[in-house]
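[#protein-structures] MJ: dropping K Homology domain-containing protein here for a structure pass
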Amino acid sequence: MIVHMLQHNKFSVEFEVPISIELSLNTGKFLPRCIKSRLKEYFITISKNEKIETFMPDNNIVILHIQTKKISDLNIFLNTSHVMLEIPLVLYSVKSTLFKYLKEQLKDVLVAVQISDTVFLHLYGIRKLVLKARLDAYKIFFKFLKINYDEDKNSLLINDVSSTYKIVDSYINNKESVFITINDLNVLNLDKPKYNSQTSEDQNSETKNEKKIFTKEFNFDEVIFKFCLYYYSNEIEDILSFNQCFLNISDDFKIRLCGNDFVQFKNCVNEIYNIYFDIVYCDLTFEPNYTSEIFLFKTHTNIHVIGSIDKIIEILCLERSRATVKLNTNKEFEEVLKNNKGQSKLHKIIKETNVNIKTHIFETWVEFEITGQSNKVARTLFLLKQEKPTQICFFIDEKDHKKLIGHGGKNIQKYMKKHSVYIKFMNEPERIKLGYTGNVIIKTPLKNAINLLKMKNEIVNSSNEKIEPNIISIIDFYNIKNKNYRQLYDYIALFNGNKKLRYFESNKSSYEINELLENQENILVKVLGTDKIFIKCWNDLNLKKVSVDDWTIKQDIGITIKDDKYPLRDSNGLNEEYEIIGRNLEELIQKYDIKNE
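AK: finished. structure tokens for K Homology domain-containing protein:
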């Protein structure tokens, strides 16, 4: 009954008696301990609900337990967010002043600093406030690095007056990001789109004075997509940012994606579907152990779980009992389950696992309803997932295509047979028409996914194309002389090979510094409030390298702490993980020796 109510009445469900809802926080092992210790008090304050408990079954999982009659009471908790920002290493020279600025500005969220292999600022709280604090933190970093930030245009100067990079709070329900996507907000009516990618196939139909907008409405289950927005918000922000698209969610939960580049738009649609189709419903007759990244709804008769395929498989293997799972997938997957002779792979899976599978075909996807013993349902889910098509897309210069394909396709047939994959080379018009970001696509079932990278490496090594994305922080991107990049949410994918960006502290004379700067890739960095001079470059220099060691905390007893991760082991002592300890700003301000700065 609870499944039917959740699926068809969405978040408007109200029960006659309170039900128990449990969810793991969306931070996993990345949330510092000093923030975890304050969560219960924080949640009671924002929800005004005293019937809230937090549990920590292990150091890397925090479970929130709520008693309520209204499913909609979940919204306030699902509206919380956790973000991590890299603090520029060169700011070690003003760290005490920096932490004081952060303490003064970031008052509405929980804040911690992690010092390990790098230095991170952690922000946790109501999503709207966290996003504002994220932008405020960036502005503080910009101030110390003397980076020009245009408040009116909400943009960061990266090279010269004509080249700016926009720092956006969010690409989800934020009209600021629409300006990045389409430049003119009046062109887009969020209720009645002027152009629709589903009906406007002719990309040449736009006039010179009109800017074409591609839109896509997703008919998603509200509970599942709220799960996606909660646990995969950072991944979704990266997808939207990378593809320069905007996701609008109305009050009645109509979900519309928009963008103005067909290739990027189609890639964004596919990636959002990939996240959504990995989440499943599960009805159980037993209560599972606490685990991360699940929603659990419990009455005196029903246990209902929402989670990723892998998490549900993990839960179903805990106990043998009756279970029902609902899995959504795209229509392409339905075709994959049929071979050339018409013999269904799905029938073969049913025969092996002895479960009951009902298939429901909708306009844009297929739903599988699987019922049986929990361990057999888990096996069925695993086998279905192994058949899911997966792919990798990348760019190879067209002049190399003919050589790689070979006469009559001889070379490419050899590649495909060797790795059991399908490969397609595309010219530029075909790539644009099909909506791929690269001009080489390799496909194979997930069970053979390990061969995707092997196949890609073999092709790349046989061509002259060696470029791979180099992921750097937004701050590091400032003043880099390279225009071949794509933006993520908090990072930049820079296509300049796998070079590592380094900072060096210089004590050399002005003449020697000028000599270093003759290399156009070397950049001078000055920090507000200090006379120290730093050189940012891609190569090693005969200078002191700036590292996380410069952020070492000097404790009163003289112990040096430079690793903010505590090693953990599971009950069998096999898998080692780490808990992030983290430190609040008050502690850091007290512990740092200001005189040494």
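MJ: nice. The chain has a mean pLDDT of 78.
AK: one more thing. The radius of gyration is 26 Å.
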